[in-house]
């Protein structure tokens, strides 16, 4: 449901949310019967699988999804035809503009103010301060007090045991204490200069990583699987073979003029090409354009 109505729900959310969404959702496309199952069953890699109208539908679908995600603060949306993300073993390999999903989430987490995060995690509210409601039964409240007293006694006993053990350790180590102090001072003198260098380098590296961060990543690509070589492989459910979307497009009966505009060549050149040559040119054209 969130997949279909997420763009309506998003403005009402108060908690920060990171959205991961493929621009071409496989479940939605299959639910709409965009891919004819009989054609898919008999697809051999060169016959028509999608018509010109179906390709236009895919293009419009991708553009619509981009629009709904445009005002989202944190989003990772590759131009892939797939549905599941984290359930697939190679989810970490997917990237947009050279930034992986895990890197983008890291950037998003670091975009929040540190003080707000600290105050949220180190609040004054403690479990010990939580009490039963005023209208709770008196018996229940008394039982709660008794159990708290027992817990306190057990804790006090543990503390006393720890103190005894610590005293014994201190007495044993008194003789070697002076020597340890001397050794520590020597090490500090030796490592003083190195430590400064390490701290400086570490801060520079972290600053560099944060400056290159991006947590609003929507891939600008007209059709699925075209621009992103990291997209999950789309396979024919009947034979398990990979479906090459460049070959599918080349065999879809597109008019020569539209194909020539896509490839940046003249119409006569396109007319002289076969489907395999066109698919290879499409791959070279769009995969080279990807900003990664």
Automatic annotation (TrEMBL):
Residues 132-213 are annotated as: Disordered. Residues 142-205 have a biased composition (Basic residues). One of its GO terms (molecular function) is hydrolase activity. It comes from the Eukaryota. InterPro entries: PAE/NOTUM. PANTHER family: NOTUM-RELATED, PALMITOLEOYL-PROTEIN CARBOXYLESTERASE NOTUM. Belongs to the pectinacetylesterase family. Notum subfamily. This is Palmitoleoyl-protein carboxylesterase NOTUM-like. It comes from Crassostrea virginica (Eastern oyster).
């Amino acid at each position: 449901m969130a997949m279909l109505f997420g763009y309506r729900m998003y403005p009402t959310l108060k908690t920060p949310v990171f959205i991961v969404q493929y621009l071409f959702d496989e479940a939605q496309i299959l639910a709409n019967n965009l891919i004819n199952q009989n054609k898919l069953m008999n697809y051999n890699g060169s016959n028509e699988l999608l018509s010109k109208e179906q390709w236009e539908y895919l293009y419009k679908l991708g553009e619509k999804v981009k629009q709904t995600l445009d005002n989202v603060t944190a989003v990772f949306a590759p131009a892939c035809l797939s549905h599941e993300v984290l359930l697939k073993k190679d989810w970490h390999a997917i990237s947009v503009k050279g930034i992986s999903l895990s890197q983008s989430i890291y950037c998003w987490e670091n975009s929040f103010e540190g003080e707000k995060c600290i105050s949220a995690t180190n609040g004054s509210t403690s479990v010990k301060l939580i009490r039963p409601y005023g209208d709770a039964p008196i018996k229940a409240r008394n039982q709660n007090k008794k159990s708290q007293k027992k817990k306190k006694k057990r804790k006090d006993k543990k503390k006393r045991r720890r103190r005894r053990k610590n005293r014994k350790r201190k007495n044993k180590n008194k003789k070697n204490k002076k020597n340890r102090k001397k050794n520590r001072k020597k090490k500090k003198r030796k490592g003083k200069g190195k430590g400064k260098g390490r701290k400086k380098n570490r801060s520079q590296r972290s600053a560099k990583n944060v400056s290159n961060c991006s947590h609003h990543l929507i891939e600008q690509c007209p059709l699925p699987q075209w621009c992103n070589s990291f997209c999950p492989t789309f396979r024919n459910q009947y034979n398990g073979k990979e479906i090459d979307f460049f070959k599918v497009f080349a065999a879809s009966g597109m008019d020569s003029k539209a194909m020539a505009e896509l490839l940046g060549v003249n119409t006569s050149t396109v007319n002289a090409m076969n489907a395999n040559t066109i698919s290879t040119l499409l791959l070279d054209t769009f995969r080279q354009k990807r900003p990664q």
